[in-house]
From TrEMBL, chain A:
Cited Pfam families: GST_C_6 (PF17171), Tom37 (PF10568)
Family matches, as InterPro entries: Metaxin_GST, Mito_Protein_Transport_Metaxin, Sam37/metaxin_N
Biological processes per GO annotation: mitochondrion organization; protein transport
Alphabetical UniProt keywords: Membrane, Mitochondrion, Mitochondrion outer membrane, Protein transport, Transport
Domain of life from the UniProt record: Eukaryota
Subcellular location: Mitochondrion outer membrane
The protein's name in its UniProt record: Tom37 C-terminal domain-containing protein
Species of the source: Aspergillus coremiiformis
CC annotations in GO: SAM complex
Automatic annotation (TrEMBL), chain B:
CDD domains, A to Z: GST_C_Metaxin (cd03193), GST_N_Metaxin1_like (cd03078)
Name the record gives this protein: Mitochondrial outer membrane protein
Pfam family, one: GST_N_4
Stretches that traverse the bilayer: none
Annotated ranges, domain Thioredoxin-like fold: 79-175
Length: 435, 296
């Protein structure tokens, strides 16, 4: 059985646009023999029942997330495909701690650089998603990912990298000033900021903050790497899973050619050894550069060092479900009902990890929630109907006005056609006279 | 002729329906009279809370705690508060604890400290600046963060263990009712409607926090990550008394203690505590917690 690794598709000459996918690809290319796995750039989380990428498929088993996939590979191969087997006590502890460190810190920086920095998002990241996603996902998924990245980095308070947030802020201030009645709305000067002036301002204001955040990540990495070949181990011991995570996250900081390359600049100046290490590991894991065409028209001698296999093109059925899901999840009341349904299904499924009792409570909870929503809808409809009925009973809509309106309609109907014809003929005359 | 006639005939019913609609939406006279009386009473503005500032002779640390616990200086039940409470104890700064909540804090989060000696206009110190303030105090030696592992292992606490904690405390329903509701929700109000809302908000906040980094909440993954994190911390501690081979406990010890104490504390009333099972596998972390508990 060949293992299938489903990932987000390639971008920026890297085999994937997402950090965890890159890390998992690196792990596979270092640990698993090349004929035992294939790489599928499906770029659609709904292929896996867990709704997450990267996802590993082995027959009917699906495993998602880097950590779970690594654990699964170790069990599946009886310890043969395990990069962390030979680590000593402190190395093992370091492996765990640095993994958590890289996952939390580097993810924030990559989010800031690729998604929150508006110029980079609109000029590079968004088009990159456009080229790997199929219709209609290219309209549905990128805004979701963009919003998630903004939420993850919200606590850093670097929103002035985000032009959209600045615009919203300014509108709030504008309307607040109008509401306060201090200035007539016409007199409020709205400075027209060009992208360059904003860029200049934001980079000055944020320079200190960004400096601190990047330093927090790169300094410990530079120090632990030292003169070794790998982050934790020397040449003879081979890489560990931390190296895979590091190359996954750091190559997305180093490689993309962005409009506002503050992250790459910081990395090059603060961590020259880590930069060289990332470049070296990247070429070893991902080859010399992945192109979007490698992933979608995979042939054995396409020049890529990764075992690409072309993803299935979307069938009509999956397209329909995607469209329906996107539509339903954005409709206010339907959204709640669907969320409760999902909760119930999850609770009732045998492998939800809940005890029987918990599952039952959860599913009854979900059912009752759904009932609540339906009852609410019924109340609302009933209330409106009662109001209209009452108004009719009170004689708010009088029959005379109804008749009057009807008469008006008739007369208008009679009048209008002649008018229309008139204006049409006028137009025709005008056109003719024009010739 | 025809349009004029229509206008005349249409005049009366039109006006009637408009005035009828106006009647319909106009405020009835008795209700209007009631509203005209408002505001019934205008109270003078509250005085600033002076009593705390005037006779304050010691530093006051505002944390999540109950009145009895505050009097005896017992550990707070909030990890973030306990971390700073423990740190100030470890570095030998005298202070009183006072029960408080997030709304009272100038930064919107507890803990914060009102220093005894007015540093600059008596400003409260939020927890982000507490360490800097503590180092400026007399008899407090500066802690060296030269160890590269400090920040790295701190990320284990700030993410892996915190996420598992969030799940155990807020999203595990039995624990939420018996622990979080009792500690955070019930003391803040007696109104049952507000309690329900507050509880729902707390749970939703925890859920949002966990869903920031993943598509769905995978309980077994959270527990496995916490297990790994405890193992790494246990290895880092080794046979030493304190982390990073210090002779006295420092900030990192306080951060670890904040979680290990609350996880192992019998007084919290956990209904289901998987984290304690995972933690008890590491004898040195349990002993570390017991050693530090003597400071309280």
């Amino acid at each position: 059985m060949v293992l299938e690794l489903h990932v987000w598709g390639p971008a920026f000459t890297l085999p994937s646009i997402e950090t965890q996918c890159l890390a998992t690809i690196a792990y596979f290319s270092l640990a698993v023999p090349k004929d035992a796995w294939v790489l599928v750039a499906s770029s659609d989380p709904s292929v896996s029942p867990t709704c997450e990428l990267p996802a590993l498929r082995n027959g009917s088993t699906w495993v998602s997330r880097f950590r779970n996939i690594v654990d699964y590979l170790r069990q599946y191969s009886n310890g043969a495909w395990d990069l962390d087997g030979g680590l000593s006590g402190l190395q093992r502890a370091d492996n765990i701690a640095f993994s958590s460190f890289v996952e939390s810190r580097a993810q924030t920086l990559v989010d800031l650089s690729l998604y929150v920095t508006s110029q980079n998002y609109y000029n590079q990241t968004s088009p990159a998603y456009g080229s790997i996603l199929q219709w209609p996902n290219q309209w549905i998924l990128p805004p979701k990912i963009h919003a998630a990245a903004k939420a993850r980095t919200h606590h850093l308070g670097l929103s002035s990298l985000d032009l959209q947030a600045i615009e919203e802020q300014r509108q709030r201030e504008h309307s607040a000033a109008v509401a306060a009645g201090q200035i007539p709305s016409n007199f409020i000067r709205r400075p027209r900021d060009t992208v360059t002036s904003l860029l200049g301002k934001s980079s000055q204001q944020n320079q200190f903050r960004l400096d601190a955040v990047t330093e927090e990540l790169f300094e410990p990495l530079e120090e632990i790497l030292g003169d070794k070949v790998y982050l934790l181990t020397g040449e003879s011991d081979g890489p560990s899973s931390l190296d895979c995570l590091a190359v996954g996250y750091l190559s997305l900081a180093l490689v993309p050619d962005l409009s506002f390359p503050w992250l790459r600049d910081a990395m090059k100046s603060k961590a020259p050894r880590v930069t060289a290490y990332t470049e070296r590991m990247r070429q070893r894991c991902y080859g010399l550069g992945a192109d979007v065409s490698h992933a979608y028209s995979a042939s054995p001698n396409s020049g890529s060092s990764l075992p690409w296999r072309a993803p299935e093109r979307a069938r009509l059925a999956t397209l329909r479900t995607t469209l329906f899901n996107a539509f339903a999840d954005n409709t206010p009341i339907l959204k709640d009902i669907r969320a409760q349904d999902r909760l119930r299904v999850a609770a009732e499924s045998p492998d939800s990890g809940l005890s029987e009792h918990d599952g039952q409570t959860l599913s009854t909870f979900a059912k009752s929630q759904k009932k609540d929503i339906l009852v609410n809808i019924a109340y609302a409809v009933g209330g409106v109907a009662a109001l209209i009925g009452y108004m009719a009973y009170e004689g708010f809509f009088t029959s005379e006005t109804g008749d009057e309106a009807k008469d008006d309609d008739f007369e208008n109907d009679e009048m209008n056609p002649t008018l229309d014809i008139d204006s049409d003929s006028f137009q025709a005359e005008n056109i003719l006279s024009g010739f | 002729m025809a349009p004029e006639a229509r206008e005349n005939s249409g005049q009366t019913p039109d006006n009637v329906s408009i005035s009828r609609a106006r009647d319909y939406f106009a405020v009835p006279a008795p209700i209007k009279r009631i509203f005209d009386r408002f505001p019934l009473v205008t109270y003078p503005p509250n005085d600033l809370p002076q009593h705390g500032a005037s006779n304050r002779t010691s530093n006051q640390l505002f944390v999540f705690t109950d009145a009895a616990g505050a009097r005896r200086g017992k550990p707070s039940f909030n990890p973030q508060c306990l971390k700073w409470q423990a740190y100030l104890k470890f570095v030998g700064i005298e202070f009183d604890t006072l029960p408080s909540n997030n709304h009272a804090s100038p930064s919107g989060a507890l803990p914060f400290l009102l220093p005894a000696r007015p540093v600059s206009n008596n400003t409260p110190i939020p927890f982000t600046k507490l360490q800097k303030w503590a180092i400026e105090q007399p008899h407090c030696e500066e802690e060296q963060h030269s160890n590269l592992r400090f920040e790295v292992y701190a990320s284990l606490l700030d993410h892996r263990i915190r996420n598992a904690w969030l799940y155990t405390l807020y999203l595990d329903n039995e624990n939420f009712t018996s622990v979080a509701r009792r500690l955070y929700v019930d003391p803040s109000t007696t109104n049952s409607l507000v309690r329900v809302t507050l509880a729902a908000q707390l749970q939703q906040a925890a859920r949002d926090e966990l869903l920031k980094s993943s598509e769905y909440i995978d309980v077994s993954a959270l527990e496995a990550e916490a297990d790994d994190a405890f193992e790494a911390l246990s290895t880092l501690l080794g046979n030493n008394e304190h982390f990073f081979e210090r002779s006295t406990p420092g900030l990192f010890d306080a951060s670890v203690f904040a979680y290990t104490h609350l996880i192992l504390d019998k007084g919290m009333g956990w209904k289901r505590n998987r984290l304690a099972e995972l933690l008890q596998k590491h004898e040195n972390l349990v002993q570390h917690r017991e050693r530090l508990l003597k400071y309280f």
